[in-house]
Structures are given as structure tokens and as C-alpha cells.
Fold this sequence. Notes:
This protein folds into two domains: 30-94, no CATH class; 99-349, 3-Layer(aba) Sandwich (Rossmann fold), CATH 3.40.50.720. The chain has twelve helices and eight strands. It has helices at residues 34-42, 48-60, 68-95, 116-127, 171-185, 208-236, 258-281, 308-313, 319-332, 343-346, 355-365, 374-385, and strands at residues 107-111, 131-136, 157-158, 161-165, 190-193, 240-245, 285-290, 336-338. An eight-stranded mixed sheet has the order 3-4-2-1-5-6-7-8, sandwiched between helices. A hairpin with a 2-residue loop joins strand 3 (157-158) and strand 4. Helix 6 packs parallel to helix 7 (258-281). The chain is globular. 37% of the residues are buried.
Amino acid sequence: MASGPSPSPPLHHTTSRTTHRTQPPQPWHAHLTLDLLLRVLSNTLFHPFISALLPLCLRALAAPYTSPSFITTSAFAICVSLYWILEPINRRIAYGASRKINWEDEVVVITGGLGGLGGCLAEIFALRGVEVAVLDIAVARTKEAKKDEQDVSDGEEKEGVTYYHCDIGDYEQAKTVWARVMEDLGTPTVLINNAAIVNGKPFLELEREELERLLYVNTMSHFQLAKPFLADLLSTGNGGTLVTVSSVLAHQGAANLSVYAASKAAVTTCHNCLSAELAGFAPQIKTILVAPGQLDTQLFGNVKLRGFLRNFLAPVVGAGEVAVKIVEMVDRGDGGVVSLPAYARWIAWMAVLPVGVQRVLREWAGVDSQFATLSREEDGNAAEKTGEKNETKKDKFGVVLLREQPLRKE
């Protein structure tokens, strides 16, 4: 690990032409994670067919019906089989019947879709031949404004995706671009609110402009895009899918991420309320909540929890893996929740633990020591110039701290 912070890409937008970070070579045990273990168990020991073989094998060995081993394995097989039977029933009760999907009639709108998770989703949907619109502030306003041939400009169609320059935090601009999308592609049937920005700064150092900007992009944009989306679907009676991209930080915030975590908690709660409303009078509209842990995107590119056990429990998840899960759920016409890795599905239960235990776990995971402010790093750089020792560039685990970048003005 370098002694100082290495240059990092701007972290105020999820949009980037690179969909994931280039990972350095990792030791073999880095791929051994809790998710991998659970996946193996679900397809072996906790599969109904395999579990049913256990008591059958004991009977083949002439084990009596009253033997403890036969009774235990039979009970285990029954429990596993019941879980597999009841799980789809549970989903049906929770999210209703699946809506019918005809990809020829679907129009997908993705915010923040130039890279990261949004970029992966745009690529997958485009490969299916679906009309895809990407709304992103990083799309060049004009062809002349493109910095290189790899960039895209407003209104340009490339590889089955139509790109629109849009600051989704600006209500009037979002309203105008939405009308253009409907005119160009038709009525959207899938809306994926994905775009987000982040400030890794202590609460007292946040400027009002930064606070408002982050809340407008991360939270208000969900409201101002979902409203016309749902209004169009309800007026026509057609089905659709609304995807809300939140974060595991909505349940467990982190130091120096007060506004970001609050914005994600807000959209999570909004999703829950909206799902309850739609279930009553518009069951043909499905809602999907995406609450992943750390993705291999540039938004939190410098955050690295060190150690085998931390990587085992909370590995960095590929954006492509999450995108595939989302597309699969949309393809089935289902509503639900997508949470990867495994701990993200259980993190809310941490709140029931004693507060002291929660504190110890947070200290062990290092979740509150991963971010440094731009002002502190500037102070550290000044100290370097005067020959003083700088201790602010790494956390206590030796991890280079994340730098907060200034917001870009339109």
C-alpha cells in the first residue's frame, strides 16, 4: 500500500465510461466468501433432492425408522422441502402475480447510465433489443462538446441506447427530457432510478449548496421522475416496473456520510410506501428495491476493508452481477428486493443487537474510518510541504482514505 493517497477519479458521479474498477491480482482466498459458501450449500446440502437422499441412504444401510440419525435427517429433509415450497408462495403473497413482459413493447429509462451499475443495465437491456434511454449529466450537450470519440452526445443513439444530457436534480430539465424520451421512444415501462452523488465530509463541513445538490440528485430526482412515469402507466392501464437503487447504508450509516446515507434511507422508505400504495390499486406496476453493499464502481472506489474475514463477510460485488439480478427480476415481471452480498439482506437485524455490540462490530469492520475530507487532506499536503509527518491519509487499517471531490456546476 502506498504511503499517500493515490490519484482517484471524481467521486461525485456514478457516470463513467468504465463500468468497473480494474482489480489488481488477488490471492486465491480472496474469492472465498460467505456468498460463495451459501450458493454451494443451497445447491447441495440445502437442496430438496440432496437432503431427501440422506434418510434414503440410511434406510439403504438398514437404519431403523426409530433411529436418531434417520429421524434427524428426515426432519431436515422435510424442513428444506417446505422452505422450497413456501418461498414462491411467500413471494406471491408479498408482491402479487407477475406481470407479462413483452420486450418488443418495453421502453427502459435509466438515470446515471453511462457507467457503473447503470451502464451494465443499459448494455444488457440493449442486447435484448429493448428501447433504452440513458439520462446522465455526463452526456455531452452537443456533438462538438464531446471530448473524444468514445463519448456520446445528447440525442445520440449508440449500440441500441439513446443518450440524453440531463441534470436529474433540476426539475424543469428532467421534465423536458422526459417529454423528449416519450416522443422519441414511446411511453416508458421500466424506470431505473440509479444516479447518485456522494460527499465524504463531516456534517459540520458540509456547505448548504452541497447538501441541497446531493439531496436533489439522490432523493428528489426519484420523486420527480417516478411521478410522470406512474401517471403515464396508470392513465393507460399498462403494467410497468419501477426500480429504486438504494444502498446498504440506508440501514447502517457511516461517519462522514450523513447526507448520502440519509438520502438513501429516504428513497428506501419512499419505495416501501409507494409499494404499499400501488399494491392496493395498481398491482400491474411492480416495484424493485436494490440495496447492495459496496460495488466495484468508482463511487466508492477507494474504500477497501482489509483482512480475510472482512472480505469473507462483506466482499466487493461486481456491478454486472447486480445488474443481472435486476434484469432477471424485471424479466419475470416480479417485484422484490435485490441485495448483494449476503450480509446486505441481514444488515437491518444489526439494530436489534445491544448498542455496545453494534459499536464493537462497527469498529472491527472499519465502516466509520473509511472517509477523509478534502480539507483534511489539504492540511495533510500542507504538512508534507513543511516536512511534517502526515497521519491523515490512511485509516487505522492502513487503507488510503477516500477523497471528496467538489461538485461540478452546470
